[in-house]
Structures
1.
Amino acid sequence: MKVYLDNNATTMVDPAVTEAMIPYFSEIYGNPNSLHTFGTASHPAITKAINQMYKGIGASDKDDIIFTSCATEANNWVLKSVWIDKILHSDKNHIVTTEIEHPSVLSTCKFLEDQGVKVTYLPVNDQGIVEAHTVKAFITEKTALVSIMWANNETGMIFPIQEIGEICREKGVLFHTDGVQAVGKIPVNMQEVYVDFMSMSAHKFHGPKGIGALYIKNSQHLTPLLHGGEHMGGRRSGTLNVPYIVGMGQALEMATTNMEEKIAMIAAKRNRLEDALLGALEDVMVVGDRANRTPNTILISIRGVEGEGMLWDLNNALIGASTGSACASESLEANTVMLAIGADNELAHTGIRLSLSRFTTDEEIDYVIERFENAVKRLRAISSSYAIVQPTAGGATLACHIHH
Ligand code: C6P
């Protein structure tokens, strides 16, 4: 059996999404900006996709949703353009973010620091989130932007976006959230939160790779990252990627239709897997309370077992998992989110991220439970470090579910 449990890295394109996209490659392929009917033939599909996006995130018709090439672009766009619009020519020079954002936010913040911007990287609590009062404490008169993810890609922990948004509104500070791991996974309704900008990515909810979007509240001004033709009202130039736009809209509609049922179904499988692993294995822990986690995610740490060794064993059993975010997986460094939560260096090398999707089956979960336990037993039997750390394992530092 082959089991894919790396859905926070990317998901399978739903076959119905592929089907919706296909006509826009070789049948209806005109440039949507052309005046002839080859071009205008794609307009109804683009309009449909935009409407699916608005509905999927509960945006109002005053808001803008602009398609980008990926969420990395959307994150870069917001941070760099707020710098241009609100920092370069004003006395504001401060951005607040967290220590555990995706690299597309953190690296852009580092770039902005090189340009003279002051950036505060907020620490997370033992649950791996930043509380709203912490955000409040660090906003100053100089703060132009707060950028905090909706849900973390490694732990699945959900941040208090509504409360953080209220604080930003009170303080008159722009608020951007990286919604990549929330949109399509948990209910997201832009009418219920005060968020100026939200980044999204289609390939996290069974859409195609290479397309993302930026939500812009009240269509407010944001200097374009890409200048060129007047595509998307001049907000983001480049010929519209019609098949991918169609795919993203379709995928979001499918992810958000009967969403509560989908969430319950995925969470039931995730919980069964988590309970089985915690019940069967000693000295393992899962980061963060389940009640505040995306329904598909487990970041499990196994004392004495290097994450890479575990991945190797799982891969030999045809199970795809990860040690953390896909973009950091080649570095063999400790899991930065676990370090931020307070894990020691040894423990932070033992994290394994298991992320399910609506396509994960009960049979697959049974198979993973069996193979995971076997792999841990095998690796511990040959691990010199497990024997050494075992006596102190009871003192593991993470305030999570620790089972001995
Ligand atoms: N995280 C992971 O394994 P793109 O691919 O550019 O559309 O999305 C980037 C991105 C931005 N924000 C968050 C919170 C993300 O999780 C990701 C992608 C993958 O966790 C690949 S590094």
2.
Amino acid sequence: MPRWIHTRTPDAIAHDAARLFKEAYGYEPKGVWGAPGRVNVIGDHVDYADGVSIPFALEQLTAVAMAPNDKNAYRLVSVAPDGKKMEATVPVDQVGPLSPADWSGYVVGTIWAGTESKVIGATQGYDIAIVSDVPLGSGLSSSAALECSTAVAAFELANGHAPTHADLPGLVDAAIRAENEVVGASTGGLDQRSSLYGEHGKALVIDFRKGTTTPVPFDLEAHGLALLIADTNAPHTLSDGQYASRRGVIDAFTSYQPEDSFRDIDDAPAKARAWATAQGRDVDEVFRRVNHVVEETNRTIAAAGALEADDMDAFRQLMQDSHESLRDQYEVTTPELNSAFEAAGRYGSRMTGGGFGGSVITLVDAKAIEDTAQKIEDAALAQGFPAPTFLVARPGDGARRLS
Ligand code: GLA
């Protein structure tokens, strides 16, 4: 029997965060803020190459109860979705590049980067209690949910008012810097934008070249469809070098071209062959990596067109093509991800996020949700993989105050 991921309502998770805060620090928080994880529907491994992605914010939230303290330190307590409790105390003046490069860095690094860039007002210590329904290591951006809930909380506590739409780019930057500079994960910015800009009922077409995030209707129910997430429970981490190795090839190639942006390079795959030859790199491998990035952005632009034309058949075909490219050209899938993709029937199915573990999503006929989950579970168990866990994802709102 497929196991379903349990999710609290925004009120319930806010209540739990406030209770954890009171237990840990003995007084009431100033407020509770929440930010969602995200699911990337199509367009993976293109954000750091000025490409296009179509994610949406999940309804699943990370909630942060917070209040300033007079200790010149951040005190943190966190309960993860699996019930694991973690604590940390970080002096305010100890936060900076690669410090602290663990889970607490996502939180305190966001405050550090936001105050450095003056988006978030005065530096001060905070007491922070975190609870989350965004599964960890599942390709659903639990780290962005942590950064972005902290970002809106610290913004409001330090500046005295909630962020407006105009403040969001500064908060996106602070969250990205926390991840890149403090934790040391060289990720690209898709996740933080999704978590801060999410809108109920909408997917986001993000063009990283233009710097635009455009909400578009994503009404699966009207098509009798649902988006099923299968978390393979083969955990991944993006700070372990594999992600950086993929990004490194694209960054290195781009830096050798006269164009400022990967998107401006004409016939990038052919140029990549020439560059790899001159550099003594594996020519076929570099070609496949660059070719994926070019094709995936083109595919995602086509997918945005398919959404606009209400052509979900074309959209589902593009999802399948995307998975095959991430598997064969970018080589970021795992046997567990490929098993779920095959068992779901491929059409309308793909891995989501950074890969090397995590989740497969499938646009399924709403009547076939249970059946499809069962097939994915059966295939995993038959191969000795962990039992996946499941979620039906709907587009929810972005980071905000919960209570
Ligand atoms: C991770 C990163 C993102 C993006 C995706 C792949 O989620 O954090 O920046 O690169 O992988 O699309």
